[in-house]
Amino acid sequence: MEIGKITGLKGTITIPGDKSVSHRAIMLGSIAQGTTEIHNFLRGADCLSTIQCFRSMGIEIKENQDIVTVHGKGLHGLTAPSDILDVGNSGTTTRLLSGILAGQEFDSKMSGDSSLNTRPMRRIIEPLTQMGANISSIMRNGCAPLYISKGNLHGIHYHSKVASAQVKSAILLAGLYADSETAVTEPTLSRNHTELMLKEYGADVSASFKLGSTVATASVKPCTELFGQNITVPGDISSAAYFIAAGLLVPDSEIVIKNVGINSTRSGILKVCENMGANISLLHETRAGGEPVADILVRTSQLHGTTVEGPIIPTLIDEIPIIAVMAAMAEGTTVIRDAAELKVKETNRIETVCDNLASMGCDITPTDDGMIIHGGNPLHSANIHTLLDHRIAMAFTIAGLVADGITNILDSKCIDVSYPTFYDTFEDLL
Ligand code: S3P
């Protein structure tokens, strides 16, 4: 995809449904009793992988225009897949599904694409094994393909080294099938969609913070049944982030982004924008599907550098590539730290962000857990090596809108993972 410099993005846009919420709605709908209707479901490749996995385990899932209907068969209603479950590029499918598969009576295998099969799975193998699950890395390298067979699960209190919603969710989902309460404590609160949605489906979940610390604990009691729900998925703030950045960076712009999920465990990007001097307002704040939502009004702003570190990191982990692009265009220095998790995303995002921004003329230095960006140099066009990482493709599309010359996003089709209509959304702003 070739991107040129523009001015004056104006209009109102709607962003597709949240990826994390869409995955969870299919998973919980499949193991609930009765019908679940999901409105504004994200038809991105990752969520379609989740649908396909559950279809392979006997769940009927119908896709109509705007509604996905899941005919759940209850906690013990899944059937053995006849083949290896294909999780594609999706870490969320792999890790959360591992928690559910650990509670099943049948054996299963999961495998994904070449990126997915290099991502760390010991982080879920270890706690699930402690719970009594039989789960192993088939190549014995701590990665997928994974093999899971029947085990007897018991409740544990797991202290996770990383603040990861995927790890927390895998444990809580396995906890539904355990013989006593299961708890997870993480160093900083990660996105809490699993806890919120489990409650909606009828599970006995609690979540707490320790006063004076950032440590967060979530727990679930063993469950006899979940019940099908009507779920409206909010717009994905991780997808909205590209248009927030476009509105701020492209001269003479004013964009309203409708119906975006602003759950505080996801909305760190808004705080960072505010710290950088952005002109952003939230309008029409309300709730949808148990989650807070709002319209976001963005106007072109002169940004300045900031420091992004500490407990805010898990609330914006997927937005760091686009934050780095904003920082490249901001006056002064931006420091991003405490974000070593970037190294184990779809690509090593410390490397992919730094290499590509440097190739556009940005003064940027990678660090062990983040990057240092001296902003304000004009960006120039380059060939952007996405390495098939959807968030790199989208973040550097925005960089291309403000760079001199024609920026070429290589393998831009990888945006299908989370936002297949990303380039169409721009049509509404021209
Ligand atoms: C996700 C959690 C995050 C995020 C990923 C989706 C989820 O990963 O990066 O895109 O839906 O739970 P971690 O929780 O492992 O950081």
TrEMBL record:
InterPro entries found in the cross-reference section: Enolpyruvate_Tfrase_dom, Enolpyruvate_Tfrase_sf, EPSP_synthase, EPSP_synthase_CS, RNA3'P_cycl/enolpyr_Trfase_a/b
GO CC annotations on file: cytoplasm
EC identifiers of the protein: 2.5.1.19
Residues the record marks as active site: D318 (proton acceptor)
Record bears the keyword Amino-acid biosynthesis: yes
Function, in words: Catalyzes the transfer of the enolpyruvyl moiety of phosphoenolpyruvate (PEP) to the 5-hydroxyl of shikimate-3-phosphate (S3P) to produce enolpyruvyl shikimate-3-phosphate and inorganic phosphate.
PANTHER family registered for this protein in UniProt: AROM/DEHYDROQUINATE SYNTHASE, PENTAFUNCTIONAL AROM POLYPEPTIDE
Protein name, per record: 3-phosphoshikimate 1-carboxyvinyltransferase
Native species: Hespellia stercorisuis DSM 15480
Taxonomic lineage: Bacteria, Bacillati, Bacillota, Clostridia, Lachnospirales
